[in-house]
Amino acid sequence: MGVSASGAAVLIVALLPALVRAQTPEPESWNAKFQATYVWQGKRPFSAAYSGRNSLTVDDEDSYSFTATAALGFRPWKGGELYVNPEAAQGVPLSGLTGLGGFTNGEIARTAGPTLKLYRARLFLRQTWGMGGEQQVVESDANQLAGVVDQRRWVLTAGNLSVIDIFDDNAYSHDPRTQFLNWSLFTHGAYDFAADARGYSWGVALEWYRDAWAVRAGRFIQPRQPNQQQLDRDIFQHYGDQIEFEHAHAIGDQPGKLRVLLFRNRAKMSRFQDALDLAAQTGGTPDINAVRTGEQSKHGFGLNVEQAVSSDIGLFARASWADGRTETYAFTEIDRSLSGGVLIKGSAWKRGQDNVGIAVARNGLSQVRRNYLAAGGFGFFIGDGRLNYRPEAILEVFYNARLAKAAWVTLDWQHILNPAYNADRGPADVASVRLHTEF
Known about the structure:
Layout: H1 5-23, E1 30-43, E2 61-74, E3 80-92, E4 113-130, E5 135-138, E6 147-150, E7 153-161, H2 183-186, E8 201-210, E9 213-221, E10 239-251, E11 254-267, H3 272-282, E12 296-308, E13 313-322, E14 336-346, E15 351-364, H4 367-374, E16 392-404, E17 407-417, E18 428-438
Helix pairs in contact: 3-4
């Protein structure tokens, strides 16, 4: 017996709620995820007219990092989510983690030497208040419980986590465990976000979502000393503030997002001009460690764009700027940065779980920081004893291949012009092999 068109339409409408329920994941009351990532890197010898205390060594050298993380989540009440991440790490960086603005391994900051160390990476609470609008599906993931949320909602996050868990997200370049490795590419190069030496902090962030728009603001505590592990608990005296505006859009039916980030840090930071002035008075070499005497502020901004070209190709770009008057306090020595690239899925060659990534970054320094380095000063990460300034330029290319259901291997190459902004040194080439599992 045939079914009329009107009868079929009635049947579809009747079945629609069941179809929607079938596509919606069962809400999770808890989950447990795990990841492990090993990165080996090898740097070839390169030429340099001179080297200083914080230079990238000209010799052939190897490096490695290993991290393992358990992400445990629990829903204590409606709208609430509690997460804890025990993490273990070990590794040895290239050149003692000196000699570059854009370091070559985004995982290396988690490590603290060749001995495996266990620590707590995250311990935070997330509370969501629905405010209506369409329902949005949330998939089960690390630090994310499956379910549905309102497109219009408020989200409060408080506790121990990384600032860039919340701010400066990007679908195509944000995770050095699966995407680009270079520090200039997984976040804004000039974003000196508050963090301990491993990249984590304590703080609070509030987010507002309304359809295509999102606004988020947060305050997090700073380390007691630049790029050190111990944090300063006085969140009203020394802190990092940020606010970000996000808008989702579509171009040719392909989704994209634009984000604008503003940040301001307050801490006991040295000013480069103070170090230069003291050296002029004493006749010595400028030293930022000799002028770290009072609270200073640092501000900057970043633009972040992601855009799908098709279901298999995505583009990203970032631009960031910081005032550059004070020393780098928690991230890396970059005051201006432009980056962009493409991520391509392997569907065209029947390897849909593989990815190819190609990206470039151009990093720069403020004029006063250049003057400081040219006079023989040393930063926390860079300092060749003198400086023939040129922007640091980086090309990164990788192929990420799926080996099994939960295992990937990545072959990565980075070519770096003017390492640490010095035209008298380099270029340097770094090859990487990354092994990654998650389940």
